[in-house]
Amino acid sequence: xxxxxxxxxxxxxxEARTRRALERYVRAWAENDRDAFLDxxxxxxxxIDPVGTPPxxxxxxxxxxxxxxxxxxxxxxxxxxxxxxxxxxxxLVFRMIVRxxxxxxxxxxxCDVMQVGEDGRIRSGKAYWDHGCVTRL
Amino acid sequence: xxxxxxxxxxxxxxEARTRRALERYVRAWAENDRDAFLDxxxxxxxxIDPVGTPPxxxxxxxxxxxxxxxxxxxxxxxxxxxxxxxxxxxxLVFRMIVRxxxxxxxxxxxCDVMQVGEDGRIRSGKAYWDHGCVTRL
Lengths: 137, 137
Prior knowledge:
2 copies of one chain form a homodimer.
Chain A: H1 9-30, H2 34-40, E1 41-48, E2 56-57, H3 58-70, E3 75-86, E4 89-99, E5 105-116, E6 122-128, E7 134-136
Parallel strand pairs in A: 1-6
Antiparallel strand pairs in A: 1-2, 3-4, 4-5, 5-6, 5-7
């Protein structure tokens, strides 16, 4: 529990970049914007959701992740509890409400850990949640 | 947002082991038990707190982390919000109340990500928090 890295001007710039990437990620979900979502990830990014399952490697596979999530017509409403910037790594603590088109759905309490590159795009992301994080609506 | 890995008997056993390690970690803080704290970590574990600062490598350096944290006579009261088990990785969402011996202190909202080995010990751990997670008491 030492000092944080955001105590120099360059450290603050990196952390602002990290924070912006996570905000863009959330906004893409909130606005149901597939192009914006894919643009947040580096071309060769790796995405794991949830941790313990196989990774999606590269923007093409991450597009498949997005399309699978939306295939049923479900809608997504993220609410951010906290965004934490630790150098080029960021933590997103949020609730995702997933509404099924026929009614019902679920609330998911999740934490995503992201590593953000110098271009401001996510290089790797990991979503932590398990069955205890899910409430049926 | 696919299936979790805890859906097979072996997956459930791994996730129970992950969860136990994080529970032991919290208990060591709550009971101010240095030996128990060090025993939760593998001999060659790596610990980063907060992410963005240099790692503590190996149990000897992790002992120094503990000793530095306690050098002022501060006491630590963890409250767990959530423990998430994703295969051999775990997420600990918690509040740490740090009380200074002369009065005052801080409340820290933190998320720790841990990887747990087959021996049930933490192989690597990373604590995510920044200045926005700290409230002075």
